[in-house]
Amino acid sequence: MRWQVPSPLSTPEEFTPFVHHPYHLLLTLNVDWFQAFDNKGSYSVGAIYMTINNLPRHIRFKKENVILVGVMPGPHEPKKDEMNHYLRPLVQELQDLYFNGFPMMIEGKMVIARAAPFNVACDIPAARKVFGFTGGGVFFMTINCDLKNWRSTMVESVLIEHVDQIKAGLYEVGTCIQGEERASNGNLTLVLLMKQLPCTLTTPQVPSFSQKAHRLCYMKQHCSTMRHCKTFKTALIEWYSSLALFAQETANPHYVALLNDSMWFYEAQRSGRLPSSNRVSWRHDSALNDGSDHDIDLTGGYYDAGDYLKFTLPLAHSIAFLSWGAIEWYDGYTKANQTEYLRNTIRWGTDWLIKAHPQGDVLYVQVGDGEIDNNYWGPDTDIPSDRPSYMINSSTPGTDVAAQTAAAFAASSYLFRNQLNDTDYADLLQSHAESLFNFADTAQPWQTYTTAIAASADYYATNTYTNQLVYAALWLYRATGNSTYRDKASSYFDQFKLATQPISLTDWSDQSIAAFVLGAQVDNDNSKYSDAAIKWLDGIIHGSDICSYTKGGLLWCDGYSDDNALVPAQDTALLALIYSKVDSSKSSDYTSFATNQINYMLGNNRMLTPYVCGVHMNSPHNPHHAGASGGTDINNIDTSPPEEKYILYGAIVGGPDKDDKFYDERNDWAQTEVALDYNAPFQGLVAYQLSLDHVDDPPYVSITEPRPHVTRSHPIEKWLIAVIVIVVIFVVGLGLYICWWKRQAVRACCAGRRNQGKAIEA
What we know:
By secondary structure, this protein is α+β, with helices and mostly antiparallel strands. It folds into 3 domains: 18-249, no CATH class; 253-269 and 285-702, Glycosyltransferase, CATH 1.50.10.10; 715-745. It has helices at residues 57-60, 80-99, 124-131, 155-161, 163-168, 232-244, 253-268, 312-328, 330-335, 339-356, 370-373, 399-418, 423-442, 466-480, 483-495, 512-522, 527-541, 566-582, 587-601, 626-629, 669-672, 676-691, 715-761, and strands at residues 24-35, 44-52, 67-72, 102-106, 109-121, 138-140, 171-176, 191-196, 310-311, 362-367, 389-393, 547-549, 555-557. Strands 1, 2, 3, 4, 5 and 6 form a 6-stranded mixed sheet that branches. A 3-stranded antiparallel sheet has the order 9-10-11. The model is unreliable at 1-15 and 133-229 (pLDDT under 50). The chain crosses the membrane at residues 719-740. This is Endoglucanase.
């Protein structure tokens, strides 16, 4: 890579893309000037630092992973010749790192690693100063280019012409220097080459790096004027070497990013007063009067989906599944360095559930009015203020939601006690679990909560409370070790005849299979749980009256998959994996099923689409989410704006239809809605992948083609076809009738004539 250096760079016509090599580093050169002293407004200092693009973005700018290349001291910005002087040593090192590389011992073998600038990040003044022209905020680089015949006058027109493609990651902008040609301002010319790429720049195939990077905090070292603390090459090799020491423990960076992004999505769903650590720039403090109609603080918690309602039932289901997945594959979170994000994700939900359970026989189950909320589409800063809260109590019980919330408290209590090492908080959660289960168990009559709370009936209504009671009792047994809960679960299992019920799938409304799998885990001396788990899982996985597979391989269950196709597949995959840890005889079968469903979700499908927002150019671009959309016109949410204003990183959408088709339309909530319970099983599945000794990259990493374009058959077209068919049948029938009638008339006429002739003869 020659940058700001005389003589053009030539490369062979055929080459292996630099980014595809497993040991190559892709660098970002960051340049900026800033005011170093508050009382000296004219004192300007320039910093040059490198970041490594191979790292997932959530750790890319941590100080241990940032290398300060040099500081250009003030009091004034350097002149052009001084700028070239500052950067020339760096250019020479970059040449050496690219052309010669450096030896590294990785996984027991000696390899040659190389490094090269991938992009330059700077503001417009820095672009003018460093590169000799004005441009956008980021300039992309490529490693291979031949610019003998290019001229700097082409640069800005190329950028303007292809700016949309650059943003979409469809083009790569290369950088090279054309000899000694200088721009009008006297700087060495930086020329850009456009080259169409077979894949998006946002998902290159890159090395897998450990999160345990050696701390290279050069900012703290003393730097003399216009000198490097260390040479950049030395610093980079030290950094890379520290990672190689942990090569055997390395977590796949793509799955690390998926896990982190999923918890970023939960942050995007936060309600209430946000902490300073909030990572979602467009999410604000919101709904700060929730609960005021009952003189109780119900602020905080999570918005349920793409709207601003809060429901206890799906939140409790999500917390239980998030906790369960983390309990089973906590090592996946550890390898990915995501345990603190896990703690915060769970606790943001359980802290609100604690608020919603102010006393033993009271549980708030909904905040917000569905009719009002569904008529608002816009940011969280203008949510309609009329937000009533609804509760169940001993006079109007809700057995299902009380039991489900008790299960969430118990599962999270187990996680905080045994994995997150927070005994005090675990004790608090356990006390709420026991109190709430007692309420669910003793409040009469047993009934579903929507019997008492009609406002929830159109959104989250269950059909039963029986499986939730068993599920909650089993979680309490696991969390407390108190055999009373084990015995109660077993008694209810028999009393409600759960094993003989028609096969159903687990989701927020039904915990039957979850109860069977959990029972097999914690009460393994009682074979009835294992028998039921195998019967139901086999019935779903290997086909039943309601479940089959799409042509692309997605589990499809009629009555469940129609509104959110990926959820039944995820929930079943998670439970199958958990059960496979209990019963080794089912391990191969269930693991294969789960892996296939994971891969389908992550791009191995007919749409070439990972159904996770923000991870690939084919990811859904228009999730049904009021806050992320950036629009305010509820009557035109598909086109206002045409594409989502903010990327909803990590969100799982509803998914494709039965023909594996996905239309990415914001108004099609069945396909593009996002929700708390969509991501809950997904995190467990990703943690499972990270826990493996080796896992291949997600399928989307190797997808280079755009998503196939599909068009939706408009309902009126089918209606017209039906009318046409009916008309054709009618016309044909009428024609046949007329022919028959005429034939009969002719026959009658002929018969009359014959009879008349016979009469004359007679």
